[in-house]
Specification:
Blueprint: E1 5-13, E2 18-25, E3 29-33, H1 40-48, E4 55-61, E5 65-70, E6 75-76, E7 84-87, H2 99-104, H3 109-122, H4 138-151, E8 156-160, H5 168-184, E9 188-193, H6 196-202, E10 205-210, E11 213-219, H7 220-225, H8 230-235, E12 240-248, E13 251-254, E14 259-262, E15 273-276, E16 281-283, E17 291-293, E18 298-301, E19 305-309, E20 315-319, E21 332-335, E22 341-343
Parallel strand pairs: 3-9, 3-10, 7-8, 8-9
Antiparallel strand pairs: 1-2, 1-4, 4-5, 5-6, 10-11, 12-13, 12-15, 13-14, 15-22, 16-21, 17-21, 18-19, 19-20
Helix pairs in contact: 3-4
Length: 345
Amino acid sequence: MSNKSLKVNIQKKLKEFDLEVDFELKKGCLGILGPSGCGKSMTLKSIAGIVNPDKGVVSLTTDEETVYFDSSKKINLKPQKRNVGYLFQNYALFPNMTVEENVAIGLSKDDDEKRASEMIKRFRLEGLEKRYPRQLSGGQQQRVALARILAYGPDVILLDEPFSAMDSHLKEQLRIELVNMLKDFDGFSVLVTHDRDEAFQFCDELILLDEGKVIAKGATHEVFENPGRVQVARLTGCKNISKIEMIDEYHLKSLDWGVEFEVSERISPNITHIGIRAHDFSPAEKDDLNVIDAADSTKLEKPFEWEITLANGLWWKCDKQIHEHEFEIPDYLKVDPKDIILLEE
């Protein structure tokens, strides 16, 4: 078992904030999730060598350690020497080169014919070899860009919002392709996104960035299930968040919704808020535990779910079939104590 890892520990002063990112990836795909302008792309560019951090270290260990950047030792490898593949948002294909020329661009003369044709086959680009990027769809362009990156066997693949420019039908198809490609890829990959579904789908590990600072990191499922902090809960898509007042160790009052709840874990003094995911409510009887009055709610129909807004501001999302158009909102809803997420500010 080799001791492979990608280590990134960098600081860089930016106009709006200071970027400070520190992680070690031992296998698979790391997601960097956060709002626009939080430092995600800057982190990728620092790994690729397109941007220089002010200080820190970026290194890759496969069979041996390669230091890409080390401010204290004055090491700073040029991007071409880092063996890192970078999928830019706009794919950065060469407009005056054909598909096969784009795919073969990084290869030496000896292996380019065979390797390029392998990649063209693998990414289902047969028949498009002589076309130019402008003659391709967005999805085809992305496949050419990925084929070009994988052709020269990179150690690390960096993906910068790979689906941001696509319509949703194409997005689903390409997500599946990319998930499969990353499964087969033996190196490391880092995916930058502001889409929590994408992060959940692709990434074994996750870091959440906010204004240049890492506010959470860990296994992706763990970060979603136990966000721990208000901002992390928000970034992972928790729709219902309220300030609280503690009643006793297992009971609290939500100040925003005016409801008292029992929770399943002890409330420590540093807990300031709770979160409830919008799918975690169910119909209830008046005297059930953690019951909420659902009178005067409003509903919005979507193809596969009802979105119910309670009078006190709570959101409930309830799955539906595409052909169901009637829905009777129950008088009361409840939430299981274990589904109430305790949060610090």
